[in-house]
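Holo prediction. Input below; ligand is BIS(adenosine)-5'-pentaphosphate.
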Amino acid sequence: MRIVLVGPPGAGKGTQAAYLAKNLAIPHISTGDLFRANISQGTPLGVEAKSYMDAGNLVPDSVTIGMAEDRMEQADAVEGFLLDGFPRNLGQAEALDAFLQTKGLKLDAVLDLEVPEDEVVKRIAGRRICRKDSSHVFHVEYNKPQTEGVCDACGGELYQREDDREDTVRKRLEVYHSETEPIIDYYKAQDLVVTIPALGKVAEVTQRAMDALERGE
Ligand code: AP5
Ligand code: ZN
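Structure of the complex:
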């Protein structure tokens, strides 16, 4: 299956993607995680991406599209993938369609995680991620690690993302509304969008998404 997850910052895309990818036996491809891995390795791509991310802006398409395509071309993604955080504007959505078309492939579904804005603000304020692997995500109240400050998955140190500061979060929400939301209409025109109410326990949201995919909506 080839699935796109969309939703505002803090909607729970990364959290859900980890479970959905495991259930569906496809890789979880997060452009945010790819950028953060490049930043922690100090690559030129990471250096370029960091200034945009810290300001809450999108990293330019000229960098992002090639990075996402390279990842989708890796061997583990041949049978499908779950995209988290890509595409994030109309240019990226069109590039993804063109990329899939050259391979005779298409998307199966676009899952739109719907969460009220006051909830995403609470989720982001309490989020802590792992220094060793930014796809290991916790929350100080809603999704506590067994030991405070320590990643359950790998023992890495938990910290607050730099772009989770209040002013940057406001900017990221603005960018979501102006640049990313239009892709929902773009995919509605292709009849691919399934809206998933994303309030409630993590496992309940995962179940809603799995049910929707099984119904083939
Ligand atoms: P990215 O890393 O993609 O961030 P984002 O889209 O802003 O999304 P988040 O990671 O903030 O949230 P999420 O929806 O994954 O929520 P999570 O599961 O962590 O992008 C970061 C930056 O990179 C961008 O600003 C941009 O600069 C750049 N970038 C990335 N992709 C790009 C692209 N394609 N083009 C250009 N630039 C790009 O959950 C949030 C918190 O809530 C966690 O603490 C979690 O434990 C908790 N939680 C989750 N589910 C629940 C629940 N059901 N109940 C209670 N708490 C919950
Ligand atoms: Zn970890």
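The two ends are 13 Å apart (CA to CA). That is the main takeaway for now.
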